[in-house]
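Subject: Sanity check before I submit

Could someone independently write out the structure tokens for this chain? I want to compare against mine line by line before I put it in a report. The sequence has 478 residues.
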Amino acid sequence: MIFSRGRRIRGRRWGAVAIVLAALLPLTAAAQQRVVPESREEMQLSFAPVVKEVAPAVVNIFASKTVVQRQSPMLDDPFFRRFFGEDFGVFGQPRERNQNSLGSGVIVDSSGLVVTNHHVIADADEIRVVLADRREFEAEILLEDPRTDISILRLESDALDLPVATFRDSDSIEVGDLVLAIGNPFGVGQTVTSGIVSATARTQVGVTDYSFFIQTDAAINPGNSGGALVTLDGGLIGINTAIYSRSGGSIGIGFAVPSNMVATVVAGAREGGVVRRPWAGAQGQTVTADLAQAVGLSRAVGVMVGEIYPGGPADRAGLAEGDVVLAVGGQPVADTQSLRYRLATQRLGAQTELQVWRAGSEVVIDLPLEVAPETPPRNPARLSGRHPLSGAVVANLSPALADELDLQGTWQGVVVLQVPRGSPARRSGFRRGDVLHEVNRQAVRTVSQLGVAIEAAEGRWQMRVEREGRVRSVDFSG
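---
Independent answer below. Compare away.
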């Protein structure tokens, strides 16, 4: 009885086993698809392979310059000399001291070209570059481009054998992509931080003339300036330039100059040390909601053309006042800053397509890519005599000079280049970039015309001066 019950129980057990095996078959098949990790890389998620590839090309930059520092002017006071003695006065004399700055850079060419930020090496007397393998080189400045805050250095050595970072198209990245920032924050040594791309076309930053940045939340701190922002395939997509911070440290809002803009500066360094950028010969304003409604656009995007230089590229291409530029070379244009960036990163000598909104529909215009003409020649001159502009250096304004000085909306007149301290021109309130259009109701287009008009004023000068796009009349007497 027990045995027979046992047999019945055994039969039930075999049925249960069969059911369990049938249920486990899919799991067994899935398990067979998994393999045992055979390497360290397969056992862990790591950015180490990317860092090993790119980090050797990221360098530390030490720049030093001599500055003159003057002690308190009270030390020149006769009372202090009488009280403390004549020898005390020597402490009030100007004295020189070395001022050091620290930053990062990226080697982008095996010949020894190093990209860094302009503010890292500005006015430096000596620049020393230290590689990740601790080799040290003296460096010379090959090209400075303050408008993008990018400078190019060349390492002074014949036998280099250098690691190089490779540019990647900065337009290929998207918000949310993982990136690494590599640099030397606070001088602690080479440091790697990770984050994502927070924005790809941040224009309302105001750090440089070409304000168009990649924004990231990868930690960027003082000393990271000039370092690399790279993708997970090791491509260099930006040069870390600035942070938004209330304390001086990272709060997750960092900005990098896109690699496409950096590449134009590197090309200028290779081609004679001058950056040459395309010029459209047109001025405009960012489309607002009201403008968009007025021209029939569904949203406020693009730049409305307001003024066109006669005979310039835009004029010859058929662009007209009131047109709205929506895209350049297939890349969208949101505002005037993004339009300037898109044009500046195009290749000279070719042409690019402008997507334009005109009279309620889209049209495509082929824009030739040319440099701004320097007509008339600038012919700079320092003014002298008894008049409000005495001491100032002025020049004939041309499209090329207007572009160089970042003057928007004006291409002719006489522009102020320098206003020395203590000069009558400085006391009269003139600044670099002021454009003179009239003296005593007489139009001035050249430096010589300005000189004649000033000398003929006889102690009273009424001038029409343009500053930051606004023209105003100013009266002087003397």
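---
OP: Matches mine. For the report I'm noting this point. The mean pLDDT is 86.
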